[in-house]
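Q: I have 100 residues here and want to know how they pack in 3D. Can you give me a structure?
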Amino acid sequence: METVSYPLRIPGELMELAKLKSKEQYMDQATALRQLLYMGAEKYVLELLREGRISAEIAARLLKVNIHEIYRIAEKYNIKLGATLEQYKKGLEKAKNLFK
């Protein structure tokens, strides 16, 4: 993963969360802050995916995971990806009618 330096002012409350996370999980504050940032990015990307504004493939690329992992992450946020069982049945019925 490529990293980029960026000057940033961080709210004190967010730094307090990073300090707490770093103490509880035995890591440095910079790592804790990056993890909190990633958590927010993950939630935002999944929201875009849920709204249909991006595809699962784009979501996977943005989060640097494979497509199967996107489905697992979506379950964590109670987001259903792909066709529902009813949609699948309708599609199957339409396909049967086409080939009659």
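Q: Anything worth noting?
A: The chain is about 65% helix and 0% strand. The chain has a mean pLDDT of 90.
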